[in-house]
Design a protein that fits this description.
- The complex is a heterodimer of chains A (493) and B (128).
- Chain A has 493 residues and is mainly alpha-helical.
- Chain A has two domains: 1-275, no CATH class; 277-493, no CATH class.
- Chain A has 21 helices and two strands.
- Chain A has helices at 5-23, 26-51, 76-103, 109-128, 132-151, 157-187, 192-202, 206-223, 232-238, 241-267, 269-275, 278-298, 303-323, 327-358, 369-372, 374-388, 394-408, 412-438, 443-446, 453-471, 474-489, and strands at 57-60, 71-74.
- In chain A, strands 1-2 form a two-stranded antiparallel ribbon.
- Chain A starts with a helix and ends with a helix.
- Chain B is mainly α and 128 residues long.
- Chain B has one domain (2-127): Helix Hairpins.
- Helix content of chain B is 73%, strand content 0%.
- Chain B has helices at residues 2-6, 8-26, 30-49, 73-103, 108-116, 118-127.
- The chains are: A mainly alpha (493), B mainly alpha (128).
- The interface between A and B is medium-sized, with 25 and 30 residues.
């Protein structure tokens, strides 16, 4: 049993999905989803504990030894992301019952849970696998599930959001698979570790650089790197609340992981940052994201769209850390990846609670909401403070490490850019605070009640995590440091 | 010249890739976009499969008298990719059906216009 943890991590949620469909019951489906994601969380924590010492768990599927068979390969970096994804999934699974009861017709409930499990299985699979083509397959499993989940939104605009995401996401995945195909043509292998050991012989060739470019662009579409983020705001704004929270917290983060895995474990930092001007390109786009997306966020009329644009900006901080090409930059990126996922997950869960009561989260619908839903509103404010990077919140820790990594390279102007763009976050969070606390509630808002405990409790767990991770950094910084070391060491023999 | 001719499968692949991508970007009709997307995905199948074939190679079954075999792995990979492509296309078409029901059109610019004007959105809401 213990030897098979690497595959169980993926198979457990994958089996839950058809099980839920067969049972055709909303209640049983929900229980299965909660049990499945809790089981995935337990497995990921165990894998994390085992890989902390720099160990690499290799699992040969069907006992076909790698590189011939498909290998699952888990090191500190993959375990770090596995814990994040399954933790958020467990919280969202608990939250989803009450949330979809209000948003979806009853006959769709069990299908929702099945899709949720499929999406989770896909995301975990991307992270656990050590095979390039397997990454593509899981990428599409999670994406196809995500398209359907988004299309379940009540508003008809959810359909168009889902369609746009389908087009962009498929182009991204196909670019990725072109890149993998070129690598396969050059080396004759798909196993990531084997690729890493064979690439040095051919890395001077133009085809390898083309593969690198295709994979970068394809994955960047998936992780919503500015200016390839156009699918993201609509998808997050019109999807059911539980779905926006889950996708905002996990989907883009897993894509960042794929990029890091290919950069460091397969191509190697020397090739990525030496042969192509990737450093400069990534840095320029990251800075553009930090400023442009934050500025656009300020002018949104819908709070969910506001925080969706804020996500694009925050992804900019993550890729800025990556673009530094140093171990401390990579650590900062991974810390921010974790902290931002928890923060954004919490905010979208709480926005879902407001949407449940107020019928939507446009600014004119939530004036004065702080007086009638004090806990929910306060939670969002705490999340907002973490987005800005106020001390004692998780966001401060990651920005601190990011600024340290930047200063280490002597780039003071970059440090100033990080701080300046955080000021834009102050503005958009303040817009929410101003509307929620300082405007008089109208008749509609005044009769609202506080959100039900079934929604507040899961969201509260994430908000508590935001504060806890701001005080005790051993989990995030410790885990991210291990992950960065593992990535930097790479899989080259 | 000979070099270009011997790589004709690559030229074909690139032609199909660009054609598909161009249709996705240039067309405003949701169905035509999906057609373009399909061509784009299909071109990648060619990228994988064509180099797997060796001239004079047979199926990879050990038998007397045959020493040159074609690589079977790309076929298996692309079988998976075809399944993914079919699933994507099916889901895309299903979405277009739902879009047609909700908006009464499958032209992207008309849909965007309907969503922009609040009056039209309300009318559609009442009609539902």
């Amino acid at each position: 049993m213990a030897a098979h943890l690497a595959i169980l991590q993926v198979v457990l949620p994958l089996i839950c999905a058809p099980l839920i469909v067969v049972m055709r019951s909303a209640q049983a489906g929900w229980l299965t989803a909660v049990a499945g994601s809790a089981g995935a969380l337990a497995i990921s924590v165990e894998l994390y504990a085992r890989t902390r010492g720099g160990e690499v768990i290799s699992y040969a599927i069907g006992s076909w030894p790698p590189p011939w068979g498909i290998e699952y390969r888990i090191d500190a970096a993959s375990a770090f992301v596995l814990v994040l994804v399954s933790f958020v999934a467990a919280v969202v699974a608990v939250y989803s019952r009450r949330s979809i009861a209000a948003e979806l017709p009853r006959e769709q409930h069990y299908l929702f849970h099945a899709l949720f499990m499929l999406c989770l299985a896909g995301l975990l699979g991307i992270t656990a696998t050590g095979d390039a083509f397997n990454v593509f397959v899981f990428l599409e499993i999670s994406s196809l599930a995500a398209y359907v989940l988004i299309a379940l939104g009540r508003d008809r605009r959810a359909l168009m959001a889902s369609y746009q995401y389908l087009i962009m996401g498929t182009i991204g995945a196909t670019f990725f698979v072109i890149g993998v195909g070129l690598l396969y043509l050059m080396t004759g292998t798909l196993n990531l570790a084997d690729l890493a050991s064979r690439l040095p012989e051919v890395e001077e060739r133009r085809s390898v650089l083309a593969a690198l470019a295709f994979i970068t662009v394809g994955v960047s579409l998936k992780l919503a790197l500015f200016p390839l983020h156009l699918w993201l705001p609509n998808a997050y704004a019109h999807a059911p609340s539980a779905v926006s929270a889950f996708l905002a917290a996990t989907a883009t983060k897993v894509s960042v992981y794929v990029l890091l895995r290919f950069y460091y474990s397969v191509f190697g930092a020397g090739l990525v940052f030496g042969a192509l001007p990737m450093e400069q390109v990534l840095m320029a786009l990251s800075i553009a994201a930090m400023f442009a997306a934050s500025a656009v966020a300020i002018f949104q009329r819908d709070v969910r769209r506001l925080f969706a644009y804020s996500s694009v900006a925050q992804i900019g901080y993550i890729t800025l850390g990556v673009s530094l090409g140093s171990e401390s930059g990579l650590t900062a990126a991974l810390v921010h990846l974790f902290n931002h996922a928890i923060t954004k997950g919490a905010i979208f869960l709480l926005l879902g609670a407001i949407a449940l009561r107020a019928g939507g989260v446009r600014f004119d619908q939530i004036a004065g909401i702080g007086r009638v839903m004090p806990l929910t509103t306060f939670g969002i404010v705490l999340g907002g403070l973490s987005l800005i990077g106020v001390p004692l919140t998780a966001g401060f820790v990651s920005k601190w490490y990011l600024v340290l990594a930047v200063i280490e390279q002597g780039a003071w102007w970059l440090a100033a850019a990080v701080v300046l763009s955080s000021l834009l976050a102050v503005v958009y969070v303040w817009r929410f605070v101003e509307t929620a606390y300082f405007q008089e509630p109208d008749a509609n808002v005044a009769r609202l009640k506080e959100a039900p405990a079934t929604l507040l409790a899961p969201a509260g767990i994430l908000i508590a995590a935001v504060i806890y991770l701001g005080l005790d950094t051993s989990l995030t910084v410790g885990g991210a440091t291990d992950a960065a070391v593992a990535l930097f060491r790479g899989w080259r023999p | 010249m000979l070099d270009a001719a011997s790589h004709f499968t690559y030229w074909l692949t690139i032609f199909l890739t660009i054609t598909g991508l161009y249709i996705v970007v240039a067309s405003g009709n949701l169905i035509k976009k999906l057609v373009g997307l399909s061509i784009f995905q299909t071109s990648v199948y060619l990228l994988y499969i064509a180099p797997g074939k060796l001239i004079g190679g047979t199926a990879p079954i050990i038998a007397e008298g045959f020493t040159v075999y074609s690589n079977p792995l790309p076929h298996v990979l692309i079988l998976t990719a075809i399944v993914v492509g079919v699933a994507t296309l099916a889901l895309g078409l299903a979405l277009v059906v739902r879009v047609r029901e909700a908006y009464g059109t499958i032209e992207e610019d008309e849909i965007l216009r309907q969503d922009e004007s609040p009056v039209a959105a309300e009318v559609a809401e009442v009609a539902r």
